[in-house]
């Protein structure tokens, strides 16, 4: 498998990034805050309107180093990409599948299958690891319901039915998500998902983790030559990275949700790092955001065995390996798209 | 046979990929998926050449030209010869801007040492055929220079060599027109393949995805 290189996150506002030989130099006013060799980097991600020199943009584009601009709160703004890979053959086939509802459904159902499977095993693992803390029968009931949804999804060939099953599985999973929060319960609770804006600490964390994940997934799809904006489950909508959203279905729970839970349960963050705005929106302070990014980076280095490839890879390469497998399926090397089925 | 359209020319350097593994060639030249190291390498190579005007070096009765762009319409290929040596020869051909008559000999540089199989030869033969077509002459000889042994090997080119190269190129054009990537035939050569991560040859030896899913669901 490919090597996981570092992602450079620039969270200090009002910085300027420029190229000096083979290095990125980060400056704030007259001071140099850091200098990093480009050859170690896979992506650069800036928060809060950092300026970047055209020379550095060019260098990143040439080396396929993802360069992404986010707002301070992690809303995606823009990405710099170079000349796109000449992979029109692959992309045209992707478009053909996307245009055909039934063919789309056959791919989409495996994304959803992955999502529900992973949700089930998140719960099963929790019942095993925290048998004395959890209301086991309650969780087992949800797990059983998820199994049923899975069996349904397995044979669905219609996108609307698929969305229906997916929706009810999500309701089931969300109904016990709060049970998985085992520490700092007064400050961190989950009563349902809200995102525009997030109205509690857990939703703020989830939103931020999803942003980090979507950035990784988008880069992975682009690096294997797929068009992140043309999806199968999520239909075309201008400006929406539909394929990235599709692929996130199977990774959200196992990658981002579990990450957020571990931040809370291991007390790596606390409620002091969150503040509420007048409109009820909950925002993280800079230190907390840094803490989250640090944890994310560490998580990416952890190793797992890829369930289909049966190869030891780091978590950070999971989006890439799934993108690669999707590309191979589209090119006709595989009989189906193999979702990431974690246990 | 009609000449190929210029837009459909294949890269001469692809012959060596094709001989190494057809799938590798298709991944690079049809799908344009290649690993960063290969891409950067080729990139700097091309730049180095582009940055150099055609350097002509005269040595006795030899005229040495580096990085000479060549092509052939009948074969449908284009590429660059590392070195072409033009040797003064009364039986040769005139060159524009030079006095006297010359015979060209392509010299292809290889990093390693001579190999048992003749995988290095095809590329040289294709270059020779390009030169014949561009200079309207008949050639019969080229050289392979091996960096590791610092030794040059004379390569006589026979009719059957040419037929073989033609056949290989026809096959390449066929895949290219169909935009077809052959399935992986995994073997020991995969160990040294720079596209291993993109190709995932083990993948095809694996059970089907359908059975992977079945077995996970029944756990
Ligand atoms: S990994 Fe093996 S099968 Fe795949 S392209 Fe390389 S040499 Fe060919």
Q: Could you walk me through the main structural features you see in this protein, from its secondary elements to its overall organization?
A:
The complex is a heterodimer of chains A (343) and B (219). Chain A is α/β, with parallel strands linked by helices. Chain A folds into two domains: 6-80, Ribosomal Protein L15, Chain: K, domain 2; 88-331, Up-down Bundle (Four Helix Bundle (Hemerythrin (Met), subunit A)). Chain A is 48% helix and 16% strand. Chain A contains nine helices and twelve strands. In chain A, the strands form four sheets. In chain A, strands 1-5-7-8 form a four-stranded mixed beta sheet. A four-stranded mixed beta sheet of chain A has the order 4-3-2-6. In chain A, strand 11 and strand 12 form a beta hairpin. Chain B has one domain (6-218). The longest helix of chain B has 20 residues, at 159-178. In chain B, strand 6 (141-146) and strand 7 (151-156) form a beta hairpin. In chain B, strands 1, 2, 3, 4, 5, 6 and 7 form a seven-stranded mixed beta sheet that branches. Helix content of chain B is 38%, strand content 26%. Chain B is elongated and about 80 Å long. Classes of the chains: A alpha/beta (343), B alpha/beta (219). The A-B interface holds A 1-2, 62-64, 85-87, 89-90, 110, 113, 117, 150-151, 154, 224-225, 307-311, 324-325, 327-329, 331, 333-339, 341, 343 and B 30-33, 35-36, 40, 43, 179, 181, 183-184, 197-198, 200, 202-204, 206, 208-210, 212-213, 216-217, 219. The complex binds iron/sulfur cluster. Iron/sulfur cluster binds at residues 21, 23-24, 27, 184-186, 189-190, 193, 195-196, 199, 201 of chain B.
Observed structural traits:
heterodimer, A: 343 residues, alpha/beta, Four Helix Bundle (Hemerythrin (Met), subunit A), 4-stranded mixed β-sheet, 16% strand, B: 219 residues, 8 helices, 7 strands, binds iron/sulfur cluster
